[in-house]
Amino acid sequence: NTSSSALTINNIQHSPWPNGESPYNGCDVTVTGVVTADTAQYNSGYAAYAFQSASAQWSGVVFDGWHDSMLSRGDEVTVSGAVEEFDPEWHFKFDGNTKLINVSAVTVNSAGNSMASMSVSTADLGQDAEEVESYEGCLVTVSDVTVSAMNAYDWGIVDDSGVECLIDDDMATMAADNYMSTLEEGTTLSQVTGIFNFSFGTYKIQVRDLADLGQLGVDENFEALPRQFALHDNYPNPFNPETRIRFEIGNQANVQLIIYDMLGHKVRTLVNDNYDPGMYVINWDGMNDNHQPVSSGPYLYRIKAGEFIDHKKMILIR
Question: 40: which DSSP letter?
Fold first, then answer.
């Protein structure tokens, strides 16, 4: 399907549905904005750019698949491509992240433009924030934050709102990546700026370069945020061929996450290990413990972490 060239980024990003899917998913569109992250930040493994039409919610998006010319931060560009929520090239890594793929044309209208980042709180960017989807693809800044948690992939940060959001270095320059490797719980940062994105099942600020990271300090009175045990809805659901299951651990515990069919037969053990407090995402590829594909239908996923037990239902469609 081809849509009107009069569309804006806001039109293709703004979603009337709880799952955040673009109403133009699958359509070819042409939109205009200012580049906020170029391939100097979004490395060649992603070959992606971020661009934005205004310093406002629903106004940013990522596009990739353009190799005919190099674009720079500050270029105002008009881009033609397909709106996609489930990119087959990066399936599962970025599924659920509205982006433009198969870009067929890019016109540079002008250079040296500025795009102010939006000042937000970590509460605005929390995983369950009411309007979190509206910041996807946008350049954002949080100020006066403390590193509250770390795992192998992300850092949790929190401001005086007391609500944690995530940052990562997946698309950062090497200098920024090295800088972030020094962060630890209790480290303070005067600011963190970056492109807010959805990947691997969670929302996060993706830092671009050193300029996005403020002055370091140490919070001498830092106390780790209290965490609760929780099992979240898998996404997508229904799904084919893969889905993500996100869970949170309140304190160190042995965690078992197991898939069952509706007759109560065990299908797949996804997790059976000790976990530290934190937020985790596990993928299920629709295979059983023998690495054989299971049939379409409903399944239960059940978590047991210490005394915490919960389960939810999901549907596989082949």
Answer: T
pTM of the model: 0.77
- Which residue range(s) make up the domain with 92? 9-110
Q: How many domains does the structure of the chain reveal?
A: 3
pLDDT, residue 202, reads 82
For 241-259, the pLDDT digits (tens) are: 888 898 989 999 999 999 9
> Under a CB-based contact definition with an 8 Å cutoff, are residues 317 and 240 in contact?
yes
Instruction: Say whether both 101 and 134 belong to one domain.
Output: no
18: tokens are: 């709880």
β-strands 278-284, 243-249 pairing? antiparallel
Q: Using CA atoms, how far apart are residues 98 and 22, in angstroms rounded to an integer?
A: 7
Q: Are residues 60 and 130 in the same domain?
A: no
Dig out the tokens for 200 from the structure: 């691997």
Identify which of 143, 134, 147, 142 has the alpha carbon closest to the alpha carbon of residue 10.
134
Q: Is residue 3 part of a domain?
A: no
Angle at Cα 258 formed by Cα 156 and Cα 267, nearest 5°?
A: 140
Structure tokens at 97: 């992240």
Number of H helices, E strands in the chain: 2, 19
